[in-house]
Specification:
Layout (H helix, E strand, L loop, with lengths): L29 E2 L8 E3 L3 E3 L10 H9 L6 E3 L7 E8 L8 E9 L5 E9 L5 H6 L17 E5 L2 E8 L6 E7 L2 E8 L12 E4 H4 L29
This protein binds zinc ion.
Length: 237
């Protein structure tokens, strides 16, 4: 891809992700300076760990991605009827350097039509979950954890409280902490968030190992490569 630094504010991110990856915070392309020691650079966010390019999701990809990862890959487990995995991604070049993961799923919305769910696990400050939620900042915000939780899921059998995160009206986002990491659940459309009251159970694909072959897989969802809309771009960071 073209190796130039655009003037701030110029819209250049119109194509698909570059083949070296994308910025986890905005989905824009990253560039790799020739200097081996240098990291990947987003024109807006500076040096970032790269979100790796997405491939067609299948059991082999999930199993191999999870095998050596230091971050969990959360999946709905046991596999709910009608739900398929539609994306598996990670932030970080190598498994031992993974900073965030995402698993996307598609299935029936309990209130009718189709629903989608993105499950993100990440270190604080990476911003992948916040971006999928449609937020500028990298973390859930100051209201996180205040008051009674708005939902609860099981993560590897542990009850995990979640708080609603105010975000774009076309989705519903919840955040919590699991295994010492941020856990984000982002539902499309927002009404699919009613799945939460159905006692969602998540399991870490690292723990499941070859059992992930019991999951169904579908076509890669464009949700995982969505970029933040122009008006919400952090041009003034
Ligand atoms: Zn960025």
């Amino acid at each position: 891809m073209e190796q130039r630094d655009p003037p701030r504010g110029e819209r250049i991110f119109t194509g698909p992700m570059s083949d070296v990856g994308a910025c986890p915070r905005c989905g824009g392309p990253v560039t790799k300076p020739p200097d081996e020691a240098a990291g990947y650079i987003c024109a807006w966010h500076g040096e970032v760990p790269p979100l790796q390019p997405f491939r067609h999701p299948d059991a082999e990809l999930l199993e191999s991605s999870a095998r050596d990862s230091r971050e969990p890959f959360w999946v709905l487990w046991p596999p709910p009827a009608g739900w398929v995995v539609t994306g598996v991604g990670r932030v970080g070049e190598r498994a031992e350097a993974v900073r965030a993961t995402v698993v996307a799923l598609g299935g029936p919305n309990p209130l009718g039509g189709a629903g989608e769910l993105l499950i993100v696990a990440e270190e604080p400050g990476i911003g992948l979950g916040a971006r999928y939620a449609g937020l500028l900042g990298p973390d859930p915000g100051v209201r996180f954890g205040i008051g009674a939780p708005d939902g609860r899921v099981l993560t590897d059998g542990h009850p995990t409280p979640l708080w609603y995160v105010e975000t774009a009206p076309d989705r519903a986002a919840y955040a919590g902490e699991a295994a010492g990491r941020w856990l984000w659940l982002i539902f499309h459309p927002g009404t699919a968030g009613t799945l939460l009251v159905e006692n969602l159970e998540l399991a870490d694909a690292r723990v499941l190992g070859p059992e992930v072959r019991q999951l169904s897989f579908g076509a890669l969802t464009p949700r995982v490569t969505e970029q933040l809309d122009e008006p919400r771009r952090p041009d003034l960071f």
